[in-house]
Amino acid sequence: MSSKRLPLSDEKMIQLAMDYPTPFHLYDERGIRENAQAFKRAFGWVDGFKNYFAVKACPNPSILKIVREEGFGADCSSLPELIMAQQAGFRGEEIMFTSNDTPPEEFKAASDMGAVLNLDDITHIDALMEVAAMPELISFRYNPGPDRTGNAIIGNPVEAKYGVTTEQLIPAYLKAKELGAKRFALHTMVASNELEGSYIVETARMLFTQALRIWEETQIKIEFINMGGGIGIPYRPEDKAIDLEVVSREIKRLYDEMIASTPLAPLRVVFECGRMVTGPFGYLVSKVRHISEKYKMYVGLDASMANLMRPALYGAYHHITVVGKEDLPKDHLYDVTGSLCENNDKFAIDRQLPLIEKGDVVVIHDTGAHGYAMGFNYNGKLRSAEYLLKEDGSTAMIRRAETVDDYFATLKF
Length: 413
Ligand SMILES: Cc1ncc(COP(=O)(O)O)c(C=O)c1O
Description:
By secondary structure, the chain is an alpha/beta fold.
């Protein structure tokens, strides 16, 4: 069971929702820092452990600065993300560039920054060479195909557009070496929002196996394996978070068995998780605009799927707290909706909640990753502000809300 608490007392949360125009995302700095520290502690046995925080999960420099201060790197997938990582202070190999279908100018920019290039396809070696020299350190994203099952969100690896296949792996490293690479890394990303610790451990086994195969067949030494992101979070109160201590212990056991006494040791283990770092520490704060009784009961919020797309996109569950009514019986059945002209603009369908009234403050939990970031402007919806709840209890705006002028800024007429 996970607890779905707010980072502030009900009184303070309601006050915040009165002080700042709703909706807005609120991030809990203390929660993010403590979580990052626990992640590092769990993998304390890995010399040089790093989580390259997936910028796409929460692309805000204020958040990136926090995770950088906690010793994380940055995982970027586009030029704007690379620039943002730099602006947040990340330099050189603190940045991994894990892109796909990559434009040449992005290869060039990542290469100029000295980021770790993580190539998604064997043909990307040539694409890279058209715009930059082969870097000293190169990584490939591995797609195991039928050897792994993937999971519901990320899908079956055989169907995935990502990565270098098992057969292509050896030729890819050999070619990179021939072109001047001297240091090598191996990456994968086979799960998303995975709550089964054993799946993560099996990913380590898979990468250790491939690193050994690469060594045996080519004498190329993998310097680190990047396990990707994908560690899940307990979106539902009945979900159980992955026990990182247990996962880490199991990975160490495999490391000792498979790697420790081989020439590959010391082999670093790193991740590029986003969701599990900031996800549980983000809250979408909104107010009830309308209550409607049709064939069902609808609660219309001032937020919409433009602020949080996951429920509409994947039918994802996000817990909802009606602030100040936590202890009332959940004896009303509602669809909780946004204001978009899309009937799937619903944060919850058939959710048991306490009696809701117009003006109530409603908080949607676990929006700290892939929340604001997925926002869009369809229906002329303007993206909300983001606030940071700082460790001293004060709040700071870390992104203003969009205005109508922003909406028109790119138009030529
Ligand atoms: C390549 C890559 N790395 C890391 C991540 C982060 O995943 P998560 O936030 O689920 O940990 C993603 C998410 O889409 C990804 O595509």
